[in-house]
Amino acid sequence: MTTTSESTDTALDTPTTLKPPKRNRTRSPRRRQLIATLSVLAALLVAWQYLPQMLETPSYVVPVLSDVLAALFDPAALPRYLDAAAATMTEVGLGLAIGVSLGLVLAVTLSQLPTLYGIVFPYIVAIESIPKVAIAPLFVIWFGFGLASKVVVVVLLAFFPVLVNTIHGLRSVDRDLVDLFRVNGATPMQIRMRLLVPAALPQIFSGLELAVAAAMIGAIVAEFVGAQRGLGVLILQAQGRMETPAVFALLIILSSLGIALNVLVRLLRRLVVTWEQH
Amino acid sequence: MELDRLDKVYQTRTGDVVALDGITLAIAEGEFVAVVGPSGCGKTTLLKILANLEQHTGGTGILGGKELGGNRSGDVGMVFQKATLLPWLDILANVLLPVTLKRRPTARDRAAALGLLEMVGLDDFAHKRPHELSGGMQQRAAICRALVHEPSLLLMDEPFGALDAMTRDQLNVEVNRIWRETHKTAVLITHSIPEAVFLAERVIVMSPRPGRIVEEITIPFGKERTLELMGTPEFAALSAQIRRHFEVMAA
Q1: Domains (ranges, CATH) in chain A?
Q2: Closest chain B CA to residue A195
Q3: How far is it, in rounded angstroms, from Cα B196 to Cα B175?
Q4: What confidence category does residue A226 fall into, taking pLDDT thresholds of 50, 70 and 90?
Q5: Best to test chain B binding among A7, A17, A180, A271 (most B CBs inside 10 Å)
């Protein structure tokens, strides 16, 4: 009865000879799940196309799928979309780069200085609980309608998840590992760079995933508040003209970019944190 | 290695706590000594002082010709209760860690690490990651790591406490063999009396609060130990002699 179950445990004390892998005739659970997920998507798309018509919902409330796709692939609108997407992604990219770097550096610094950490920690908690996008109007006053104010909002939003997750990761490193390094005469710098930071990488990447999502929110909200370029601007303009299909098209572009960024971070995580069990 | 009336006092808010009280102990080069005692007897504190992870507060100690507490990093190899291997390094790189923290490993270091891995039967696993190995194999790799930089003292803190009984017996036999082959001075901290009697040439029994040495027992079984030894009446008698101390402490 146990002969059919395939052991994935390679950690046998006495290595056994490798058995040829058995081909599974039934589809793997993962594959079945993927098929189910795609079926749900197909059903939703079909419903999107036909349900608004059946319920006689006007196009400016919920446009049918084909209208949205027409708006999405409208050759006349394409340059505008590209320009806006470039602007928004510049804000997101710059803001992420600065916010993530600041978060990492501050986290490593704070985790080395317990006294400073004790002083700063309550402020981190306090600022973390503020809905930071609410500060966006203020940043427009301070930094203008251009790129800077958007980047600042993205930095602020991307910074905290990285900071908090990295600090948590650095602090949850096994004490015995630190002792191991100390017994072998490691310098504080070696403990930091060869133990604490690599050990915290899984949490750092969790922070990064949150930061990417937050950065997209930050960029769009900042554009809503006041901007000349960007997907947020186009959404507001389309809304003003009651061009609901265009609003949906822009949302699809925005979501695709967000998903792409998320996938990129997960891919990077797999490449870097190779020891993580999936 | 010589310790003379070594004390360790922790200062806490509720007053001083004496962890170690007048520990006097001499260990000859190449000797295997086990320290047993109930939890709270300060045996781990003693080990941390030997490893230079904590400083003693009184008395003197000399280790490998150098004063305790001074800069003598790299002079000890330590095995922890958990294997404490770095998951992002392969087994070979983990074993080489004590060297890597000092300098770039040479071909000779690599050969030494591979030799140690071969000694514990892990040479085929040199390029595997820790999570691909069983608990027992990981702990063997950790022992290799503790020896790779040729320390003058091997310290083991409950090294097999997290393993199942059978793996534990197997590893004890292996530690005995490694010790005989490398001629290292070894100090084992354990709360397992049979383990101490099985491995050590001398067992130090400690009592808790304050941590004191209450008895030293010489184990007359020679250097090579086999599992059959554990079934002999002599083994049982020595174990019982040590266990009596624990019963007195518990009473």
Answers
A1: 65-272 (1.10.3720.10)
A2: B86
A3: 12
A4: confident
A5: A180
